[in-house]
Each structure stands twice: as structure tokens, then as C-alpha cells.
Fold:
Amino acid sequence: MGAQLRVYKQKITSAQTTKKITKAMELIAASRIQKAMTRVRASSPFARAVTRAVSAVATHSNTDHPLTHERETILRSAVVIFTSDRGLAGAFNSQILREGLQLAELLRSQGKEPVFYLVGRKAVGYFQFRRIASAAEWTGDTDTPHFSTAEEIAAVLLDSYDRGGADGGVDEINLVYNRFVSMMTQSPETVRLLPLEVVESDEQETAQVYPLYEFEPEAETVLDALLPVYIQSRVFNALLQSSAAKHAATQKAMKSASDNADKLITDYTRLRNNARQAEITQQIAEIVGGADALASGK
Structure:
């Protein structure tokens, strides 16, 4: 009985230590998610303004720009997968990796070759373990993304798109990332980035009537200047959304772990008390039996 009591005591201590760790990680994630959401809200006005500008130029000009014109034959399609550098976030990374691989299978069924671009150590480790080739990788900047990372990713994607699938580049670009919906929900989202597909609009913007434009310089020059900025803003928004979703997933996972630790502590405490009560009962029974034996021997 004494050995059993020691085992239960060790398990209770271990669960209490685990709870302290998970509770601390939950609080850290809660503080980080507020900062991440502040950055997402701060970047939204700029992203909407760039979107409106690109929409206006693309809509009211007769220019057949390479970035807005879909190619006749799409040989290779880029799939940019945004994961995190760290784990302990529940199904955050697994669901986005599954979404990216499902998109790749869909592209193959359409006769397109998927080309993977990976953001985050979890995606890199996953693809390396399964020996799946990737065109480019970025790690170390997923918790608090910097705009320089978005610029680097956008430059690589634009260069690959300019080359085209026939010359080792790509003919279209897709982003796959987790979008922050709420503290409890992080939704995988797939967006075709190029050829240009403007998807960010609300009802007011949809109903807005754009004025007629006169371009100085030409509309093609305006698009050349606007579209790279648009691509950078979309990539940066995906990084920020993924970061906020990751912190929310971490907080949810750590809260669940803390609740499980509480349950383990309660269960082991009850088992320890039962074992202690059984030991006490056995000792009383031995004392009573010894007393009865002495009384009957007289």
C-alpha cells in the first residue's frame, strides 16, 4: 500500500507541474493573440485601399496585363502553404497541410503540376520527412511576421510567375493559410493570388461606382507599380492571419491541456485517498485481530 501511495503522489505532482506549464503557455498565447489581431486590423485599411486601386485600374483600362490575364495553358501551379514554426497548437498545422495536399491532388487531376512553397518549420519538416520536393522555404518568422518576409516571398513568387511554367516557373499562384475567425475557430482558406482575382470586397465596395480614369503614365505602367504592392499586401495579410490563428489555436490547446491536468489531479487524488483509506482499514483490522487473539489467549 505504501508503494502505491508513493506512485499516486508522484503522478499528482507531475500533473500539477504540467498544469503550471500549460497555464503559463495559455496566458502567453492570450497576450500574443491580442497583438496579432491588432496588427491584422491595422493592415486591413491599406490592403483594402490597394485592392480598390488595382480593381479600378484593371476594370477601367483596356490593358491586357500579364498579371491580370489568365494564360491559355497552365502547366505548373504554385501552392504556398503557411504553417507555424512551433507546435502545441492542436490541429492548426495538420489541417492546413491536409488542405494544401488536397489542393495539390485537385491540380494534378486538372493536368497541372503543383509546385510547393513552404512557410514555417512544421511544413518544411513534414515535406522533408515524406521526401516531397519544394521550390522555396521560409522559416523563423511566423509568430510575429515582418513585412520584409512578405516582400521576399512576393519577389520569389513574382519572379517564378514571370518565367512561366514552360521555363521552370509557374502559371498561377495559390495561397493556403489558416484564417482567424474567432478564438475558437480557425478556418483553412485557399486563395488564388495570380492571375489576379480580387476577392476582398464588402457590400459597399461592390456597389461603389468607380469614376472614369485618365492614366498618366499608361495603365500598364500603373499596373506594373500597383500589382507587386498588391501581392505583397496579400502575402503579408496571410502571414498575419496565420499568426493570429496559430496563437488562438495554442491558447485553445493549452486550455484543454490544463483542464485535462485538473481531471488527472482529481482522479489520482481520489485513488490516493482510496488507497490510504484501505491501508488505514487494514491496519485497524490487524490491530483488532491482534487484540482479539490476545484476549482469547488469556
Notes: The two ends are 33 Å apart (CA to CA). Strands lie at 76-82, 113-119, 136-138, 172-180, 186-194. Helices lie at 2-59, 92-109, 121-129, 147-163, 203-207, 219-297.
